[in-house]
C-alpha cells in the first residue's frame, strides 16, 4: 500500500468504472439490436412473456458465448438448402397463424399454409402465400376478407375445410345423422325383437340365455327339414342348439376322444 | 435374377389360378386328394414368391442398377439396412412384398388351423390364392419389379431422405402385415359362407388371426405417427391425410369386430354383423391400397401414379359385389339365437361401441371421399383437411372413450339398478375428481377437459375390475397380491389383456388432449442470441443459438444447428437439428445432390412435454449465401410421449390377449362354443 498514493487509487477507480460502464452499454446495444429481430411486439398472450429479446437475455445472464456481431458464410452453402429470410414479428402473430391454419397451401402437399411454410422448407408456394396473407393484413383486411380473397383466387379448395353451407353441409352432417339414425334403428329393431320374443313366450329376463326367438326357431326348423331331421316342422327341440351346432359338438367330442 | 424372379411370378400366378379354380368348383368335396392338393398349392405359391422376393433382394444388395426398381430407390452409398428396406419403398417392390407376405400367411393358415376346421381349408386356400393371384397379376401386367432399363446407370437415384429413418424400416412392414393378414379372417368368413357352416367354428378358427391383424395394424399406425412426428417436422403426428385415414379405416372395423365377436360367442347374436365386419375390413384394406396407389386422392404418402389403381378398383368392385351377394344368400341362416334382453346390458354397450367405431370409420371415409363427391355433384374442387376431421370426429371419439369405460361395467343380459350403482360409483367419482381438479387449475379447453375426464373414468373402471378380480383370487385361493394378479391375467388373458388395451387407448386420448396446449414460435437468431417460450406448465425455456457446424456423414452432407436450452434459468443441455443433403455419384465420380435437403428435428422428450426444435434454414447474407444466422421453429408439445407409452401398453395388452394357449377359461368357452351351446349367465353377473 505504501507504493500507491491517493491519486493512483483515484485514477484506477475512474478507469474501472468507465470500463464497466462501457461494457454494460455495449452489451445493451448488442442486445437491443438482436432484440429488434428476435422479439416480437405482437406475440400471442401465451408467449408474450416468453419471447424476450436477446438483449434482455444478455442483460439477465451476461455474455456466455462468443461469435456476436456479423456472422460468417457457411463453408458448404449448397448443403443447407435455400437461404431463408429473417423471421418478422408478424410471422409469429397468433391471428395470422390461426388464419393460415385454415388456408391450404397452393402446392400439392395437402397441408395448410402455416404448417407447410414451417415444415416443408423446400416449398416455394407457402412462403409466397404467407406474404400474400401478410400483405392483405397490412391492407387492413379482416380474416374473413382474406379468406374470401384466397377463395376468389384459388377457388373453394383454398380452404382447409369447406364452408358449412349448401351441399357442403352434407359433408358435416351426414356422418352424425348416419350414426344417430343407425343408433335409433338399432334400438328400435332390438327393442321390437325383444317384444316379439316376449310375446312368443321365449324371451324375457330370467328365462335363460340360450332361448331362441321365433324367427330363429323357424330358421332352424327349415334347416332341420332340409337335413331330414325328425324335428322338422315340429316344436323346437329341447336342446338349445341348431343341428349344425350339434354336429359340431359331436365332432369336437370326437376330436377330444381321439 | 430378374429372369428367375419374373418366372417365379408367372408360376405363382398359374398356381393361384389353379388353386382358386378347383377350390371354388367344389369337386374336392368328393375327392379328398384334390382337397389336399388345393391346400398344398398355397405352399407352392409361397415357395415361388419367396424366390421372387429373394431375387429382388439380391438385385438390391448387389446394386444391379440395370433393374429399374433398384436404380429408382437405391444408390451405391445407401446404408445396407436402408437398401434392404428399399424392397417396400416403391410401388412395385411393395406389391411384391404384399404378395410374398400374403403367401406366408396363406401357408400358415393351412399349417396352423386345427384339423376340426379342415372342411373350410380348401375354400380358405381358394380365397387366399385368388387374392395372391390378383397381386401377382397386377405386378406382371402393370408393375413388374424386375423390369430392366435399356441402359445401366452408374448409380441409382437413392432413397427418399424421409424414408431414411429407422421407423420406415419397420412402420410400412407392420402396416402391410396388418393389411395383409386381414385376408385370412376374410378367407375363413367366405369359406364359412360357401360351406354353409355358420356356427361359431369359423369365429374360433380366426380368433388368433383377427387379434394378430389388429396388433399389426395398431403397431403400424402408431409407428407411422412416430415417424411423422420425428421425421416430417411439423410437430404433430396425425394430419388426417387420406393415406393415414386409409390405415385407420380397417383398424376401426377390426376393433369393432373384436368386440362384437364376443357377443356372438357368448350369446349367439350379431352373426350377420360379424361376417359383414370381417368382409368390410378386408375391402377397406384393399380400398386403402387403392387410395395409396391410384393417385385418385391427393396425398403426401402416395406412390407414383400408375395404372395399378384401375386393377385395385376393379378388384374392389368385384370382391365387394361377390362377397356381399354371398352374404345376402346366406342371410337367413345367420339369424341371432337369442334376443337382446335389455338396452342396459353389456351386449347393448358393445353394440353401441360397434356403432361408434363403424360411425367413425364411416365419417373418416366420408371425409376422405367428399372432395371427389363434391367435384362430381357440383363440379367444384374442395379441400377436406384437419379442421373438418377434428370437428366431425372429436365428439365421436369422446363418446367412444366413454363407452370404453361403460361397457365392462354393465352386466351381461340385463343390468339391475343395484348393479349399476355398485359398478359406476368409483369410476364416476374418479372422472369427476379429475374434472374438478382441472377446472380448479384453470383448464378451460372443452375437448381436453372431456378427454381427461373420460380417461380418468375409464381408468377407474379398469382399476376396479383388476382390483376386484385380484381380491377375489386372494380370498378364494389364499394367494399373495402379485400371484393373484398374475394368475388373474394369465387365466383370463382375453379379458384382462383387453383391459390393458383399453388403458393404452385412454392414454392415446390423453396425448391427443395435450395437443390443445402446444406452444410454438419461429425465430431468427445469430450465435449467442436467445428466444424464450413459456410452456403450458408455466416454465420458461430459453433457447440460445450456439452455432452451425457442417460435416459429411454416410451418404449425406449435414448442416447441424445447435441451441443451448435453459429451463427457468437453469442449464438444460443442448438440442441439435439438422439439414441433410443426400448425394449420389455421377459418371465422373463427382458427388451430386440426390434430393432436396431434408430436415431432421431435434427432440428432448419427457413424459411431461417434448421440446421440439426445427432448424428451418440459414439466413441469407449480403452476398446471397447462407450464413451462420439461423431460423428455427421451437415447439413445446405437452404429453406427446404418452402416445408412444400408450402404444406400448396397447400392444402389450394385445400380445397378452393373443398369447398362445388361450388360458383355461377361454379354452373352455371355445369348446362350448364349438359344441353349439353357451353358458347360461347368472342374472346380474358382471
Brief rundown of the structure:
By secondary structure, chain A is mainly alpha-helical. Chain A has ten helices and no strands.
List keywords for this structure.
heterodimer, A: 258 residues, elongated, B: 686 residues, alpha+beta, six-stranded antiparallel beta sheet, 10 strands
Outline the secondary-structure elements:
The complex is a heterodimer of chains A (258) and B (686).
Chain A: H1 6-38, H2 45-48, H3 54-61, H4 94-101, H5 113-117, H6 125-138, H7 143-154, H8 168-199, H9 214-226, H10 243-257
Helix pairs in contact in A: 1-3
Chain B: H1 2-25, H2 32-61, H3 68-73, H4 80-85, H5 91-112, H6 121-142, H7 166-181, H8 183-195, H9 201-232, H10 242-267, H11 271-294, H12 308-329, H13 346-378, H14 386-406, H15 417-440, H16 446-477, H17 481-491, H18 493-514, E1 519-525, E2 530-534, E3 540-553, E4 556-567, E5 570-585, E6 591-593, E7 598-600, E8 602-605, E9 609-620, E10 626-638, H19 641-658, H20 664-675
Antiparallel strand pairs in B: 1-10, 2-3, 3-4, 4-5, 5-6, 5-7, 8-9, 9-10
Helix pairs in contact in B: 1-2, 1-6, 2-5, 2-6, 5-6, 5-7, 6-8, 7-9, 8-9, 8-11, 9-10, 9-19, 10-11, 10-13, 11-12, 13-14, 14-16, 15-16, 16-17, 16-18, 17-18, 18-19
Structural class of chain A: mainly alpha
**What's the rounded overall pLDDT mean of chain B?**
90
Number of helices of chain B: 20
Label the overall shape of chain B. globular
β-strand amount of chain A: under 5%
| Helicity of chain A, as a percent range | 55-70%
Separation of the first and last Cα atoms of chain B? 61 Å
> What are the secondary-structure elements of chain A, in order, as H or E?
HHHHHHHHHH
How can the largest sheet of chain B be summarized?
A: 6 strands, antiparallel
User: What is the 3D shape of chain A?
Assistant: elongated
Notes on the protein architecture:
The complex is a heterodimer of chains A (258) and B (686). Chain A has 10 helices and no strands. Chain A has 258 residues and is mostly helical. The longest helix of chain A is centred in the N-terminal third of the chain and has 33 residues, at 6-38. With 686 residues, chain B is α+β, with helices and mostly antiparallel strands. In chain B, 61% of the residues lie in helices and 13% in strands. Chain B contains 20 helices and 10 strands. In chain B, strands 2, 3, 4, 5, 6 and 7 form a 6-stranded antiparallel sheet that branches. A 4-stranded antiparallel sheet of chain B has the order 1-10-9-8, with no helix packed on it. In chain B, strand 4 and strand 5 form a beta hairpin. In chain B, helix 13 runs antiparallel to helix 14 (386-406) and helix 15 (417-440) packs across helix 16 (446-477). The longest helix of chain B has 33 residues, at 346-378. Chain B is globular and about 85 Å long. Chain B starts with a helix and ends in an 11-residue tail after the last helix. At the A-B interface, helix 1, helix 3, helix 8, helix 9 and helix 10 of A face helix 13, helix 14, strand 1, strand 2 and strand 3 of B.
Amino acid at each position: 500500500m505504501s507504493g500507491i498514493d491517493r491519486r493512483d487509487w483515484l485514477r484506477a477507480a475512474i478507469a474501472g468504472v468507465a470500463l464497466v460502464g462501457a461494457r454494460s452499454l455495449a452489451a445493451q446495444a448488442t442486445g437491443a439490436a438482436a432484440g429488434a429481430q428476435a422479439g416480437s411486439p405482437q406475440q400471442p398472450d401465451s408467449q408474450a412473456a416468453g419471447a424476450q429479446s436477446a438483449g434482455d437475455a444478455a442483460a439477465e445472464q451476461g455474455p456466455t458465448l462468443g461469435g456476436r456481431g456479423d456472422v460468417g458464410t457457411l463453408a458448404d452453402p449448397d448443403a443447407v438448402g435455400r437461404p431463408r429470410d429473417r423471421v418478422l414479428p408478424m410471422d409469429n402473430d397468433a391471428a395470422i397463424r390461426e388464419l393460415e391454419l385454415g388456408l391450404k397451401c397452393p402446392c400439392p402437399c395437402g397441408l395448410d399454409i402455416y404448417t407447410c411454410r414451417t415444415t416443408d422448407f423446400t416449398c416455394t408456394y407457402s412462403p409466397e402465400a404467407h406474404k400474400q396473407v401478410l400483405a392483405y393484413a397490412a391492407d387492413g383486411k379482416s380474416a374473413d376478407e382474406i379468406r374470401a380473397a384466397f377463395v376468389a383466387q384459388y377457388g373453394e379448395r383454398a380452404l382447409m375445410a369447406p364452408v358449412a353451407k349448401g351441399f357442403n353441409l352434407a359433408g358435416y352432417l351426414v356422418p352424425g345423422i348416419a350414426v344417430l339414425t343407425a343408433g335409433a334403428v338399432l334400438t328400435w329393431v332390438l327393442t321390437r325383437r325383444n317384444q316379439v320374443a316376449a310375446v312368443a313366450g321365449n324371451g324375457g329376463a330370467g328365462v335363460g340365455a340360450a332361448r331362441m326367438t321365433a324367427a330363429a326357431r323357424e330358421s332352424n326348423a327349415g334347416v332341420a327339414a332340409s337335413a331330414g331331421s325328425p324335428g322338422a316342422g315340429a316344436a323346437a327341440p329341447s336342446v338349445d342348439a341348431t343341428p349344425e351346432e350339434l354336429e359340431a359338438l359331436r365332432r369336437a367330442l370326437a376330436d377330444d376322444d381321439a | 435374377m430378374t429372369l428367375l424372379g419374373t418366372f417365379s411370378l408367372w408360376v405363382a400366378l398359374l398356381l393361384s389360378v389353379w388353386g382358386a379354380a378347383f377350390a371354388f368348383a367344389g369337386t374336392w368335396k368328393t375327392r379328398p386328394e384334390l382337397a389336399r392338393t388345393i391346400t398344398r398349392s398355397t405352399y407352392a405359391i409361397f415357395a415361388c414368391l419367396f424366390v421372387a422376393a429373394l431375387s429382388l433382394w439380391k438385385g438390391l444388395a448387389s446394386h444391379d442398377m440395370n433393374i429399374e426398381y433398384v436404380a429408382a430407390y437405391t444408390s451405391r452409398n445407401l446404408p445396407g439396412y436402408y437398401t434392404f428396406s428399399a424392397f417396400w419403398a416403391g410401388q412395385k417392390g411393395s406389391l411384391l412384398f404384399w404378395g410374398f407376405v400374403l403367401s406366408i400367411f396363406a401357408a400358415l393358415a393351412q399349417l396352423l388351423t386345427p384339423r376340426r376346421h379342415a372342411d373350410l381349408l380348401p375354400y380358405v386356400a381358394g380365397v387366399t390364392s385368388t387374392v395372391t393371384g390378383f397381386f401377382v397379376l397386377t405386378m406382371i401386367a402393370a408393375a413388374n419389379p424386375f423390369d430392366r432399363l435399356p441402359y445401366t446407370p452408374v448409380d441409382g437415384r437413392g432413397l427418399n431422405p424421409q424414408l431414411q429413418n429407422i421407423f420406415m424400416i419397420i412402420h410400412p412392414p407392420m402396416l402391410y402385415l396388418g393389411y395383409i393378414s386381414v385376408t385370412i379372417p376374410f378367407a375363413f368368413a367366405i369359406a364359412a359362407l360357401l360351406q354353409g357352416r355358420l356356427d361359431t367354428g369359423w369365429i374360433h378358427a380366426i380368433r388368433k388371426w383377427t387379434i394378430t391383424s389388429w396388433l399389426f395394424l395398431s403397431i403400424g399406425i402408431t409407428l407411422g405417427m412416430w415417424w411423422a412426428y420425428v421425421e416430417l417436422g411439423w410437430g404433430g403426428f396425425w394430419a388426417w391425410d387420406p393415406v393415414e385415414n386409409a390405415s385407420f379405416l380397417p383398424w376401426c372395423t377390426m376393433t369393432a369386430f373384436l368386440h362384437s365377436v364376443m357377443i356372438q360367442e357368448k350369446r349367439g347374436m350379431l352373426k350377420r354383423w360379424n361376417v359383414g365386419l370381417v368382409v368390410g375390413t378386408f375391402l377397406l384394406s384393399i380400398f386403402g391400397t387403392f387410395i395409396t396407389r391410384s393417385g385418385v386422392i391427393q396425398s403426401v404418402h402416395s406412390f407414383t401414379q400408375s395404372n395399378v389403381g384401375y386393377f385395385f378398383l376393379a378388384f374392389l368392385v368385384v370382391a365387394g359385389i361377390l362377397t356381399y351377394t354371398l352374404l345376402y344368400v346366406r342371410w337367413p341362416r345367420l339369424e341371432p339365437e337369442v334376443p337382446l334382453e335389455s338396452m342396459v346390458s353389456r351386449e347393448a354397450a358393445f353394440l353401441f361401441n360397434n356403432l361408434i367405431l363403424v360411425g367413425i370409420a364411416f365419417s373418416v371415409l366420408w371425409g376422405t371421399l367428399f372432395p371427389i363427391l363434391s367435384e362430381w355433384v357440383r363440379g367444384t374442387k374442395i379441400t377436406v383437411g384437419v379442421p373438418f376431421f377434428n370437428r366431425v370426429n372429436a365428439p365421436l371419439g369422446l363418446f367412444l372413450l366413454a363407452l370404453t369405460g361403460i361397457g365392462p361395467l354393465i352386466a351381461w343380459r340385463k343390468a339391475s339398478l343395484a348393479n349399476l350403482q355398485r359398478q359406476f360409483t368409483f369410476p364416476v367419482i374418479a372422472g369427476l375428481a379429475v374434472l374438478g381438479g382441472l377446472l380448479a387449475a384453470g383448464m378451460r379447453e372443452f375437448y381436453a377437459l372431456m378427454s381427461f375426464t373420460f380417461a380418468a373414468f375409464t381408468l377407474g373402471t379398469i382399476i376396479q375390475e383388476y382390483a376386484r378380480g385380484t381380491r377375489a383370487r386372494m380370498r378364494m385361493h389364499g394367494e399373495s397380491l402379485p400371484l393373484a394378479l398374475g394368475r388373474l391375467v394369465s387365466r383370463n388373458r382375453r379379458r384382462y389383456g383387453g383391459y390393458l388395451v383399453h388403458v393404452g387407448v385412454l392414454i392415446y386420448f390423453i396425448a391427443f388432449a395435450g395437443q390443445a396446449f402446444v406452444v410454438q414460435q419461429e425465430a431468427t437468431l445469430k450465435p449467442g442470441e436467445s428466444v424464450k417460450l413459456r410452456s403450458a406448465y408455466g416454465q420458461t425455456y430459453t433457447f440460445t443459438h450456439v452455432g452451425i457446424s457442417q460435416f459429411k456423414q454416410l451418404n449425406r452432407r449435414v448442416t447441424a444447428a445447435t441451441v443451448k436450452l435453459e429451463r427457468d434459468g437453469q442449464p438444460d443441455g443442448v438440442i441439435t437439428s439438422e439439414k441433410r443433403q443426400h448425394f449420389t455419384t455421377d459418371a465422373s465420380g463427382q458427388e451430386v445432390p440426390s434430393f432436396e435437403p431434408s430436415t431432421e428435428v431435434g427432440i428432448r422428450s419427457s413424459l411431461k412435454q417434448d421440446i421440439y426444435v426445427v432448424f428451418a434454414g440459414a439466413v441469407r447474407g449480403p452476398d446471397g449465401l447462407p450464413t451462420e444466422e439461423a431460423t428455427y421453429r421451437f415447439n413445446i408439445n405437452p404429453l406427446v410421449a404418452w402416445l408412444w407409452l400408450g402404444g406400448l401398453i396397447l400392444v402389450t395388452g394385445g400380445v397378452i390377449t393373443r398369447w398362445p394357449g388361450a388360458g383355461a377359461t377361454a379354452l373352455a368357452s371355445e369348446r362350448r362354443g364349438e359344441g353349439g351351446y353357451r353358458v347360461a349367465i347368472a342374472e346380474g353377473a358382471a
